[in-house]
Amino acid sequence: MPQVQIRPAVATDLPTLMEMDHSCASDYVWQMDLAQGEGQAGAAFREIRLPRSIQVAYPRPVARLADEWSRRAGMLVAATGAGLAGYVRLTEKVVPQTAWITDLAVAPRLRRQGVGAALVLAAQAWAAERGSRQAVLETTSTNIAGIRLAQKLGYEFCGYNDHYYLTQDIALFFGRALVFVV
User: Fold this and answer.
1) How far is Cα 48 from Cα 28, in angstroms, rounded to an integer?
2) CATH class of segment(s) 5-20+59-177
């Protein structure tokens, strides 16, 4: 893993973050199966391998990052000796005592090297310091790397919304309790 420093974002970081490639490739997706009957409904997800790799577009317009960055409760960036490596954005007060990790992006050249995990762990620490008791991480059903990172860090599937993103992709939510140090 490259030497990574996590710090709060500043306005001068935004142009570099917006230029970063936010898309990702995926060979797998979480496919949703709905079952509805009289008096009951259910949804099940299963990981399936795609016949070929797909390029997954980022579910939010990256151009709006500059307009929205200060409206989030927190935004942390990862910096290496070579520059900015990625960022995570958080929202509070969606659910009481819960920090919501809404965006997580890592520069393609530094993916699968621990930068995303470092950002999520820093986001958890940030949230715990502010009194959050749990964190929820959201990702698309096509972002298998994001899903696997959430699971690796102890997040458990806790819900979905199939009308959440403008891209029409299904939003998956993964949650975990935050550990407090007293």
Assistant:
1) 5
2) alpha beta
Question: What's the whole-model pTM score?
Answer: 0.91
* Ranges of each domain in the chain: 5-20+59-177
Give strand pairing partners of 156: 175
- Residue pair 175/45 in contact (Cβ under 8 Å)? The answer is no
For residue range 100-151, what is the model confidence (pLDDT) as tens digits? 999 999 999 999 999 999 999 999 999 999 999 999 999 999 999 999 999 9
Rounded CA separation 175/99 (Å): 10
Q: Using CA atoms, how far apart are residues 94 and 178, in angstroms rounded to an integer?
A: 16
Q: Which position has the token pair 């790397």?
A: 145
C-alpha distance from residue 178 to each of 17, 99, 131, 132 (Å): 28, 10, 10, 7
Task: Give residue-wise pLDDT tens across range 25-79.
Answer: 999 999 999 998 898 988 999 999 999 999 999 988 888 877 777 677 889 999 9
Q: Under a CB-based contact definition with an 8 Å cutoff, are residues 49 and 61 in contact? A: no
